[in-house]
Specification:
heterodimer, A: 262 residues, mainly alpha, B: 268 residues, 0% strand
C-alpha cells in the first residue's frame, strides 16, 4: 500500500511539473472547463426563469446537485480521463505491452498515471455552487452532514471509476471501439437530475439496478439533511463489489489481448 | 470530369467501407448521442408532471421539439475536427499535400459517407418513434415544409462543415486547437436551441441567437417542422443561412491558405 501511495505521489509530482511547464495548455483547458460550467449554469438560470421546481427540487437544491455533478467532472476528467482515453487505442494498436511488463499492478498503472490538474477548476466551481445553493435555500449543513456527503461521494467515485473501466475493457473484444471512452461519461448525464425526477422502470434501472442517479442525489440529500443511511450502505457495497468485479473483468479481458511486440 | 468524379466517389466508398467495418463504433455513437436526449425527455416529463407550464409549449410539443431537433442535428453535424487537429499536431497532415485531392474535399466525402450511414441508422428509431407516438407527437410535414427542411439541412451541413474546418485550420497556429472544438460545442449548445427553445430565452439572447449560424442545425428546422414560423420567416432563415455559408466559405478558405504556409513536418 505504502509503495503505491509513494508511486502515486511521484505521478502527481510529475503531472504538476508538466502543468507548470505547459502553462498555456493549463490555462486554455481551465477556460474550457469554466466554459462548460457556465454553460450548465446558463441552462439552469434559463430553466428556473420558467419553472419553480423539478420533481420537488427547487433551484437551490438543484444547484447543490449540480455542484456534485461538477465534482464528478473533476474526478472523471481529472483523475482518470487521460489514462483511460489511451486504453482502447493501445488495445487496438497492440501497444499495451509496454505497460503490461512493468512490475506493478496493471490496472493501477493504466488508471492513474496521468492527472489532469486543470480539473481543479471543476472542484472549486462545484464547491462555490454548493455553498451558493446552501445560502440561496437557507440550508444549514453541519459537520456530520458534510462528512456523510463526503462518504457518499467517495462511494460515487469508486462506482464511477469501476463502471467506466469495465465499459472500456469491452474494447478487448472488438477490433476497434475508440469511442467507448465516451459512453460512461455520457451515461452519467442521467445523474444531472435527481432520483425523484425518474419514475417507474427508469427509476428502478438507473436508481437501483445501475445506480448512476445516486452519484449526485445521495451526497446532495446528506447535505440537505435528508439522511438515507440504508441507501448509503447499499450504494457503498455496490461500489466496492463493482471495483472488485472490474479487477476480475480486466484480468479476464487481458487474455484476449495479443500483439507482435511494441 | 468523369475522372474527377470517380476520384471522389472512391473516397466516398472507402469512407463507407471503413464505417461499415467499424460498425460497432457507429452504433455506439448513436447510443451515446441518444443519452442526452433521453435525459432531456426525463427532465421535461418530470417538469410537466410537477405541474409546471413552460411558455406556450405543451409537453408533446416540447418532446417533439427535442426528438426531431436531435435527429436533424445528428444528420447535419460534423465531427472530423478532432482527428484533423491530431493530423496537424502529429504532422501526418503532410500526406494530404501530396495527394491529388485536398484535405477539405477528402473530409467532405468522408463525412458524407458517415452521414449517410447515420441517416440509415436513424431510420430505425424514427420508425419506432412514429409507430409509438404518431398521434401525439409526430407531424407529417407538408411538401413545402419538406422542401424547406431539405434546403435547411444542406445549408446547416455546410455551416457545420466550415466551422469544423476552421478549427482544423486553427490548429496550424495554435497547438491547443481542440479547445476551439469545445468552444464550438458550448456556443452551439447555447445558441442552437438544443438547450431550450429560443423563444424561451430572454429577448436579447433570442435576438442574438437569431443572427448567429448555430440555430440552423436545430431550432430553425424544428420550428419549420412544427409550423411555428411564417413563410416569410422561413425564407429569411434560408437567406441568412446562405449568407453564413458564403461568409464562412470565404473566411475558412482564406484562413486555410494562410495556415498551410505555417505547416512543417518531417517524414510521414
Amino acid at each position: 500500500m505504502k509503495r503505491y501511495l509513494n508511486l502515486y505521489f511521484h505521478f502527481f509530482k510529475y503531472n504538476l511539473i508538466s502543468a507548470i511547464e505547459y502553462k498555456t495548455d493549463f490555462i486554455t483547458w481551465s477556460l474550457v472547463t469554466i466554459g462548460w460550467i457556465a454553460f450548465t449554469l446558463v441552462f439552469y438560470q434559463l430553466l428556473f426563469s420558467h419553472i419553480s421546481n423539478i420533481a420537488g427540487w427547487d433551484k437551490a437544491q438543484m444547484l447543490i446537485l449540480q455542484g456534485f455533478y461538477f465534482y464528478t467532472d473533476a474526478v472523471l476528467w481529472g483523475l482518470f480521463y487521460k489514462n483511460l482515453y489511451e486504453l482502447p487505442y493501445k488495445i487496438n494498436h497492440g501497444t499495451l505491452d509496454l505497460e503490461l511488463v512493468k512490475p506493478i499492478n496493471k490496472q493501477f498503472l493504466l488508471s492513474v498515471k496521468k492527472i489532469n490538474l486543470n480539473q481543479i477548476n471543476s472542484l472549486v466551481m462545484g464547491s462555490i455552487i454548493i455553498i451558493y445553493g446552501l445560502k440561496l435555500g437557507n440550508f444549514h449543513a453541519g459537520i456530520s452532514d458534510i462528512l456523510f456527503a463526503m462518504m457518499a461521494f467517495t462511494a460515487a467515485t469508486v462506482f464511477l471509476y469501476s463502471g467506466w473501466f469495465i465499459t472500456i475493457c469491452l474494447a478487448f473484444w472488438v477490433e476497434r471501439l475508440d469511442n467507448i471512452i465516451h459512453f460512461f461519461p455520457n451515461f452519467r448525464q442521467f445523474s444531472k437530475f435527481p432520483l425523484d425526477a425518474y419514475q417507474g422502470l427508469p427509476r428502478m434501472l438507473l436508481g437501483y439496478a445501475v445506480p448512476i442517479l445516486l452519484v449526485t442525489t445521495l451526497p446532495s440529500q446528506f447535505l440537505l439533511h435528508q439522511r438515507q443511511f440504508s441507501l448509503l450502505t447499499v450504494f457503498s457495497l455496490i461500489s466496492i463489489s463493482l471495483l472488485i468485479f472490474s479487477r476480475w473483468f480486466f484480468n479476464t479481458a487481458l487474455r484476449r489481448y495479443s500483439s507482435a511486440s511494441s | 470530369m468523369k475522372h474527377i468524379l470517380h476520384k471522389y466517389w472512391v473516397i466516398f466508398t472507402i469512407g463507407w467501407q471503413v464505417a461499415i467495418l467499424y460498425r460497432e463504433e457507429l452504433i455506439l455513437w448513436r447510443i451515446i448521442d441518444a443519452i442526452p436526449l433521453l435525459a432531456m425527455i426525463v427532465l421535461w416529463v418530470s417538469v410537466y408532471t410537477s405541474g409546471n407550464q413552460v411558455g406556450n409549449f405543451t409537453l408533446p410539443t416540447l418532446l417533439t421539439y427535442y426528438v426531431m431537433g436531435s435527429l436533424f442535428d445528428s444528420i447535419v453535424s460534423t465531427h472530423f475536427e478532432e482527428e484533423g487537429v491530431r493530423e496537424v499536431n502529429q504532422g501526418t497532415m503532410a500526406r494530404f499535400f501530396i495527394r491529388p485531392f485536398s484535405y477539405q474535399r477528402h473530409s467532405l466525402m468522408n463525412t458524407l459517407s458517415w452521414r449517410l450511414l447515420t441517416i440509415m441508422l436513424s431510420t430505425i428509431p424514427i420508425l419506432f418513434f412514429i409507430f409509438i407516438f404518431y398521434r401525439q407527437l409526430f407531424i407529417i410535414p407538408s411538401p413545402s415544409q419538406l422542401l424547406l427542411l431539405i434546403i435547411m439541412g444542406v445549408l446547416a451541413f455546410c455551416i457545420e462543415f466550415m466551422l469544423s474546418l476552421a478549427i482544423v485550420a486553427g490548429s496550424f497556429f495554435f497547438e491547443q486547437a481542440n479547445s476551439f472544438m469545445h468552444l464550438k460545442w458550448i456556443l452551439t449548445g447555447i445558441f442552437s436551441g438544443s438547450l431550450l427553445p429560443l423563444s424561451l430565452y430572454p429577448h436579447w439572447m433570442e435576438r442574438l441567437s437569431r443572427f448567429l449560424p448555430f440555430q440552423f442545425g436545430f431550432a430553425v428546422p424544428i420550428e419549420i417542422y412544427l409550423g411555428q414560423t411564417t413563410v416569410n420567416q422561413a425564407y429569411w432563415s434560408v437567406l441568412l443561412a446562405f449568407i453564413w455559408v458564403i461568409t464562412l466559405f470565404i473566411t475558412v478558405n482564406w484562413l486555410w491558405n494562410r495556415s498551410v504556409n505555417k505547416f512543417t513536418a518531417v517524414g510521414n
